[in-house]
Amino acid sequence: MNDLPKVRRLEAVGFRAWPAASAQYDGSWLCRLTAGHPSRRLNSVNPLDPSDIRDIAIRLEKAAKRFSDYGRPLLVRQTPLTPPQLIAFMDDAGWADVGHTIVMTANLADLAREEGVDHLPSRDVGRFVDARIRVAGDDPALKPGLTEIINAIKPEVGLFIFEEADFGPTAVTLAVQDNDLAGILQLGVAEARRGQGTGTAVLHAALRWARLKGARQAWVQVEADNAAAIALYRRAGFNDAYRYTYRGPEAA
């Protein structure tokens, strides 16, 4: 059984940590759209009240038009807050599951105190974005959109870049400290440096910074099929909080 107040709080800090360019409410359904980045987290309908079940078909039709205007396929992010009637509607209509994600949390008081002492965050968003694109092998065309997203984050952000003089960036992540919670996002390790503890090192540097800033608990959203990342977070003390699924019409 999910702890719905905890889910609501983690959803709220997640939206603040990774802000969409457009965020519009239809009742308690939050429609997030971002022309500059294709991330499903930034381009999805997010129902936030299990009791909000009015006019499901009409509201989905309106959302589909809005998504079409952005050149995006309609996606609903199905979390423990999604009304059962909406889930049944999608089931009956044959909507596909197009991605599963695990939300994990960790108690920062359990973090080893010596980790990450020598690594401080960067303030250079452009440098961070370049490093992220390089270590992840992402499309360089995503740079303007990713830069815009990071610059729009309102809570305090720590940008972590690990580098080697003869290699360049080896790992990156960013931490968003929001009162007593800290989100870990965009963690990536260069392919040639994976399996060497680099991911653990950059993760702990970000977690230590967040704890020093006053965060007591960390959270992360990781794709359910990313076994290496899940193992990394579990070793760091993260445990499952809840799961969510992206769903879209078969035509999408």
From TrEMBL:
- SUPFAM superfamilies documented for this protein: Acyl-CoA N-acyltransferases (Nat)
Tagged with keyword Ligase: no
Q: Which domain of life is it from?
A: Bacteria
InterPro entries noted in UniProt: Acyl_CoA_acyltransferase, GNAT_dom, Rv0428c-like_C, YpeA/RimI_acetyltransf
- Residues crossing the lipid bilayer are none
Keywords from the UniProt entry: Acyltransferase, Transferase
Residues in N-acetyltransferase domain copies = 115-252
- Pfam families listed in its UniProt record: Rv0428c_C (PF24553)
Tell me the PANTHER family matching this sequence.
ACETYLTRANSFERASE, N-ACETYLTRANSFERASE DOMAIN-CONTAINING PROTEIN
Q: What is this protein called?
A: GNAT family N-acetyltransferase
Task: State the organism of origin.
Answer: Shinella curvata
